[in-house]
Design goal:
The chain is an all-alpha fold. Helices cover 35% and strands 0% of the residues.
């Protein structure tokens, strides 16, 4: 299939990262500060964000993910939609590298 200016091409980009929380209190404080300073959150969204941060440190990390910053300066790209989540996971630093769910994806 050949792309033309009249036919937009959409690409799903999947990235998996594993981060180690080395200072849960510092992460939580930074996330709470980020939520407090976010001018785009309404009161309900702010309350939900604070609750997520209080429940699980992985919820704190999600407040620092910015897909717009990741793709914002890439020429010829317009970010159409972005979703992301963070969750606790098992990790063995001595084990094999990350295994990808869809081996056909590139």
């Amino acid at each position: 299939m050949t792309s033309t200016e009249e036919t937009p091409r959409y690409v799903r980009l999947s990235i998996e990262l594993i981060a180690e929380i080395t200072d849960e209190a510092a992460l939580k404080a930074a996330a709470l500060s980020q939520v407090e300073d976010d001018e785009y959150l309404d009161d309900e969204e702010r309350a939900q964000s604070v609750e997520a941060i209080e429940l699980d440190p992985s919820g704190s990390l999600a407040h620092f993910i910015d897909p717009v910053a990741l793709l914002g300066d890439v020429p010829g790209i317009e970010l159409t939609q972005a979703t992301w989540e963070s969750a606790q996971t098992e990790y063995d630093p001595d084990g094999d590298s990350l295994e990808y769910g869809d081996e056909d994806a590139e």
